[in-house]
């Protein structure tokens, strides 16, 4: 059985030369935050699709679920997730909250089907955004690794200064 060769270590990419080490760390943090928001909304949209495909006829289910999502544990974090903001040049999806809270007459099959298609389109867009964010996270991480390989002492700058001098 053939073994895989070890992965090639990342090299410094000149495209990132304008970013300081702190800038790269900030970029990774922003991309991580964006990934959390996009993933949250993707789950919300999937839940709405599930409700519609299961034929829920309870008119206030969206309102009740919104309330539960807002009241459980991490209120601040969940409320912050109510808007998808771009990290750099990643496109934002407008009006996801409106899409989530829209009421649809479950007795109107054509309206439900049309709305499900709209939700599925939003979910596919969010999935594409997640893939792009993951790719950019990998690139930023690779750039940090490449810089640390060039000068391992730079890794110490990520540690908090606790005054041990």
The pLDDT mean sits at: 78
The description of the largest β-sheet is: none
Shape field: elongated
Structural class: mainly alpha
What percent of residues adopt helix (DSSP H or I)?
A: 55-70%
Please report the number of helical segments. 5
User: What sequence of helices (H) and strands (E) makes up the elements?
Assistant: HHHHH
Radius of gyration: 21 Å
Distance, first to last CA: 53 Å
Low-confidence blocks of residues = 71-86
Beta percentage is under 5%
What layout of secondary structure does this protein have?
Elements: H1 21-53, H2 61-71, H3 75-80, H4 96-101, H5 109-150
Polypeptide structure, described:
By secondary structure, the protein is mostly helical. Helices cover 59% and strands 0% of the residues. The chain has five helices and no strands. The chain has helices at 21-53, 61-71, 75-80, 96-101, 109-150. Residues 71-86 have low confidence and may be disordered.
């Amino acid at each position: 059985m053939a073994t895989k060769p070890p992965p090639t270590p990342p090299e410094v990419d000149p495209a990132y030369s304008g970013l300081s080490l702190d800038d790269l760390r900030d970029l990774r943090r922003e991309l991580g935050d964006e990934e959390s928001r996009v993933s949250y909304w993707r789950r919300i949209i999937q839940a709405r699709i599930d409700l519609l495909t299961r034929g829920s006829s309870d008119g206030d289910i969206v309102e009740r679920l919104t309330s539960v999502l807002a009241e459980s544990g991490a209120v601040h974090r969940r409320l912050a997730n109510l808007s998808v903001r771009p990290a750099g040049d990643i496109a934002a999806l407008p009006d996801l909250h409106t899409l989530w809270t829209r009421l649809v007459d479950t007795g109107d099959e054509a309206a439900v089907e049309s709305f499900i298609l709209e939700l599925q389109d939003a979910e596919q867009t969010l999935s594409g955004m997640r893939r792009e964010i993951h790719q950019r996270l990998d690139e930023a991480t690779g750039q940090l690794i490449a810089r640390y390989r060039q000068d391992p002492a730079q890794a110490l700058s990520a540690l908090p200064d606790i005054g041990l001098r």
